[in-house]
Write a structure and sequence with these properties.
Belongs to the FMO family. With 417 residues, the chain is an alpha/beta fold. The chain contains 10 helices and 22 strands. Helices cover 33% and strands 18% of the residues. The strands form 7 sheets. A 5-stranded parallel beta sheet has the order 9-20-10-11-16, with helices on one face. A 4-stranded mixed beta sheet has the order 1-6-5-4, with helices on one face. The protein has a 4-stranded parallel beta sheet with strand order 3-2-7-22, with helices on one face.
């Protein structure tokens, strides 16, 4: 009987092999599209493998209807092609999808859809990456992991989870609050998604209770008529990070008031520093805070358990009944499920090397979309990767030309003799 390792090798051998002359890119979201576009500009072909049936599947299939970009469009552009001039400052979900589709069309990007990568591994003997899908095995000198940090829903462990009698769903399955009219809904999570879902539920006459398990920074989306993020980026060019954080919090307290009194306690670390260190994004308020102040969105402490009768018990001793629970608990990387034999990533599927150097691993491995800095980080990584791979290809061609030139000279000398 064959050993486990032998069976794996046989599995690779049984698949039909396809040689790819450029990098293999795993994922056709914004990160994969950006990498492919930048490579194309450098004259480098690439192949995108996408497990779903469309580009930007997170946006198309797993986002709620009222979603808009939280940052102005100039901070969310992919390399080489900006948003249409007639798009609003904060594009809607449908507008962002339209931009992604136009981007792919403009750069002639055609991913292979319904190609879930089961396994990717570096073959040290042949010096290639072997990437296996259900029916095919692709070989390339380079592999770009572009599945990003938001590949799969993150589902928390809740004691008594299976005892709840109502509906439980992750925000990836949430479309609109219209299905929850007049319901008491528990929203677990108070990030941008948790706040927006709670706001959406209010507008559809539901009764949202939002769980705040940890500290959170809430900032106004705009200050002085400008994007808060834009103001922060401008100030960081001239002032130390911690001073910029203090200025942001000063304005936030003046415009929003003391959020601690609402059950939204601020972390001791400033919003930008916290984002850089942990990846935790500050909430940019788009109206939820006023609903919290009015009592329409009720702030709750952490969930202790779901009891045997299906009600929810909180850490402060309260116990309440709800018709539905919505998990606004974010997403996680799925790299550990398909990338093997590589210690470049942590067990959570994030590069061990911090930004801005986490885009390049060993043996032709690259990552894009793992910076915890949104689409700005994606764009930065994509440009670096394209330049690096183009440089390697040119160096290889130069080496071949040099060898050929050497051979010709030797032949000429032999002929002269």
């Amino acid at each position: 009987m064959a050993s486990g390792k032998e069976q794996e090798q046989q599995g690779f051998k049984q698949a039909k092999c396809v040689k790819v002359h450029g990098p293999i890119i795993v994922g056709a979201g914004p990160s994969g599209l950006a990498a492919a576009a930048c490579l194309s500009q450098q004259g480098v072909p690439s192949l995108i493998l996408e497990k779903s049936d469309c580009i930007a599947s997170l946006w198309q299939q797993r986002t709620y209807d009222r979603l808009k970009l939280h940052l102005p469009k100039q901070f969310c552009e992919l390399p080489l092609l900006g948003f249409p001039a007639n798009f609003p400052k904060y594009p809607t979900k449908s507008q962002f999808i339209s931009y992604m589709e136009s981007y792919a069309s403009h750069f002639n990007i055609h991913p292979k859809f319904n190609q879930a990568v089961r396994k990717a591994e570096y073959d040290r003997v042949k010096g290639i990456w072997r990437v296996q899908t259900e029916h095919l095995e692709y070989h390339s000198r380079w592999l770009i992991a572009a599945t990003g940090e938001n590949a799969e829903p993150l589902i928390p462990q809740i004691v008594g989870y299976g005892k709840f009698k109502g509906t439980i769903l992750h925000t990836s399955e949430y479309n609109s609050g219209s299905k929850f009219k007049n319901q008491r809904v528990l929203v677990i999570g108070c990030g941008n998604s948790g706040m927006e879902v709670s706001l959406d539920l209010c507008r559809h006459n539901a009764i949202p209770h939002m769980v705040v398990r940890n500290t959170v920074h809430v900032l106004p989306r705009e200050m002085f008529g400008m994007s808060t993020f834009g103001v922060a980026m401008a100030l960081l060019k001239w002032l130390p990070l911690r001073l910029v954080d203090k200025l942001l919090l000063l304005v936030a307290n003046l415009t929003l008031g003391n959020t601690d009194q609402l059950g939204l306690k601020r972390p001791k670390t400033g919003p930008i520093e916290l984002k850089n260190v942990t990846g935790k994004t500050p909430v940019l308020d788009v109206g939820a805070l006023s609903q919290i102040k009015s009592g329409k969105i009720k702030v709750m402490e952490g969930v202790k358990e779901i009891t045997k009768n299906g009600s929810v018990k909180f850490v402060d001793g309260q116990e309440r009944e709800f018709e539905s629970i919505i998990l606004a608990t974010g997403y996680k990387s799925n790299v550990p499920t398909w990338l093997e034999g590589c210690d470049f990533f942590t067990k959570d599927g994030m590069p061990k090397t911090p930004f801005p150097q986490g885009w390049k691993g060993e043996n032709g491995l690259y990552t894009v979309g793992f910076t915890r800095r949104g689409l700005l980080g994606t764009a930065s990584d994509a440009v670096k990767i394209a330049h690096d791979i183009a440089g390697e290809r040119e160096a290889a061609k130069e080496s071949i030309r040099s060898c050929n030139s050497h051979v010709i000279i030797h032949l000429d000398h032999d002929g002269a003799k």
